[in-house]
């Protein structure tokens, strides 16, 4: 029997409670969930790839069938490398849906053997995004209700820019 592997890719800069919720909901559905921290050299990240991987691993330590990896390869290549048959994308809004549908069409063109699965955010996480967390953090605001504790610890090692 084939191992059911789902890939959950993203930049996760930083990993939020919404991301955590998606992985927690995926974990019982698949034999293995691979959280892929994708690095885009063109983007200026708040947390280093190593900080993101470490804080996500710590956030997900209670889920034995979840692993975290880091890659600068295209998403489809990562999915093939880990033998994922499903790529999971979280949706917060209609705007996310339109953007993600376009990505899914590209993925389907490049890798027809891999399905894209959309998982809607729970209402309490629908407004949380990594960019919102970064912006609030940069202004010196409290992000403790938006990210898991290991992520907050990683953020604490960075000085908010503020005014």
Quick synopsis:
This protein is 38% helix and 19% strand. With 163 residues, it is α/β, with parallel strands linked by helices. Strand 4 (86-91), helix 4 and strand 5 (115-120) form a beta-alpha-beta unit.
Any overview of this molecule?
The protein is of the alpha/beta class and 163 residues long. Helices cover 38% and strands 19% of the residues. Strands 3-2-1-4-5 form a five-stranded parallel beta sheet, with helices on both faces. Helix 4 links the parallel strand 4 and strand 5. The longest helix has 17 residues. The model has no long low-confidence stretch (mean pLDDT 94).
Give the key terms.
single chain, about 160 residues, alpha/beta, Rossmann fold, five-stranded parallel β-sheet, 6 helices, globular
Structural class: alpha/beta
Q: Quickly count the helices.
A: 6
What is the domain total for the residues? 1
CATH superfamily: HUPs
How much is the average pLDDT? 94
Number of strands: 5
- Gross morphology is globular
Helix content: 25-40%
Q: How would you write the strand order of the largest sheet?
A: 3-2-1-4-5
Would you spell out the secondary-structure blueprint of this structure?
Layout (H helix, E strand, L loop, with lengths): L4 E6 L6 H10 L5 E7 L10 H11 L6 E6 L3 H7 L4 E6 L2 H17 L4 E6 L9 H9 L10 H8 L7
Parallel strand pairs: 1-2, 1-4, 2-3, 4-5
Helix pairs in contact: 2-6
């Amino acid at each position: 029997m084939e191992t059911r592997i789902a890939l959950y890719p993203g930049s996760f800069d930083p990993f939020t409670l919404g991301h955590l919720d998606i992985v927690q909901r995926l974990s019982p559905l698949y034999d293995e969930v691979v959280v892929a921290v994708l690095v885009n050299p063109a983007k200026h990240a708040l947390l280093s790839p190593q900080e993101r991987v470490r804080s996500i691993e710590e956030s997900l330590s209670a889920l034995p069938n979840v692993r975290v990896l880091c890659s600068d390869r295209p998403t489809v290549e990562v999915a093939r490398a880990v033998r994922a048959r499903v790529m999971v994308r979280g949706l917060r809004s209609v705007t996310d849906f339109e953007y993600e549908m376009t990505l899914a069409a590209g993925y389907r063109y490049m890798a027809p053997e891999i399905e894209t699965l959309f998982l809607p955010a729970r209402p309490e996480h629908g407004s949380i995004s990594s960019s919102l967390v970064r912006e609030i953090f940069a202004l010196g605001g409290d992000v403790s209700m938006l990210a898991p504790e290991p992520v907050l610890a990683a953020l604490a090692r960075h000085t908010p820019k503020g005014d």
